[in-house]
Amino acid sequence: MQQLSSYIILSDEVQTALQEQRPLVALESTVIAHGLPYPSNIEVAQAMEATIRSQGAVPATIGIRDGKIKIGLTLDEITRLGTAQHVQKVSRRDLAFTLATGQLGATTVAGPVIGWQTDEFPAFYVRHSGRHLPLRANDVGTIAAIARTQWECHLHGLVVGCPIPEQYAMDPAPLEAATEEALRLARELDIRGAATTPFLLAHVAKVTAGESVEANKALLVNNALWAARFARAYYALL
């Protein structure tokens, strides 16, 4: 019987980083396949990787192809995810199906959420959602210690909710109206499941004349920045 490791392909850079115990930042790829229009999706993927490198860590964008989990996608592989049709959105529940059927898959994250310097769940384009988070951390050392304990206890992934930088946050009122309209249209058109988020993002981008796309790009690059800092702090504990 195959083990999970037999489904994983590491890029040379990721393999070397693991051997040298250098900080690594895993990046989901759903934003490339479903979150942003082309070519903004490819541009922001490159910007995120560049930001991580500037902080002294190694980026590892993760996707699924030909029945394998590739950790450390090349630019060609990122571009394929960003331009292909019918890319599967893959979380834990979808992993076995996507691997077994050999479909092209874009990964997403799941796990308990900790607020980064916030007591509210960040609402994507705006900093506040009104949804209280019971867990909060204010410094990178705390995030690193929590992550180490989480994985020493063989628990699953950890999501750190980073609010969008203040200067890129959008006005919540028109954004909420555009989102509600998108959800209404999705119901009318019977768009559901994994197709909902791409439809919603595309409609909001259209209504906001592209402002939401720029906000999304800024959010993602900021996430990459802090992820690299968290990774450095984590590896300092090892």
Number of helices: 9
Q: What is the total domain count? A: 2
Shape: globular
> What is the CATH first-level class name of the largest domain?
Alpha Beta
* Uncertain spans: none
Number of strands: 9
Query: Which series of helices and strands comes N to C?
Result: EHEHHEEHEHEEEHEHHH
Q: Tell me the span between the first and last alpha carbons.
A: 32 Å
- β content, as a range? 5-15%
Structural class: alpha/beta
Overall average pLDDT: 94
CATH topology call of the largest domain: Indigoidine synthase fold
The name of the CATH architecture of the largest domain is: 3-Layer(aba) Sandwich
The helix content is 40-55%
CATH superfamily of the largest domain: Indigoidine synthase domain
Q: Give the radius of gyration.
A: 18 Å
- Note the main sheet: 6 strands, mixed
Topology overview:
Elements: E1 8-10, H1 12-19, E2 24-27, H2 30-35, H3 40-54, E3 58-65, E4 68-71, H4 75-83, E5 88-90, H5 92-101, E6 105-107, E7 113-116, E8 136-137, H6 140-152, E9 159-161, H7 172-188, H8 196-207, H9 211-237
Parallel strand pairs: 1-4, 2-3, 5-6, 7-8, 7-9
Antiparallel strand pairs: 3-4, 3-6
Helix pairs in contact: 3-4, 3-9, 6-9, 7-8
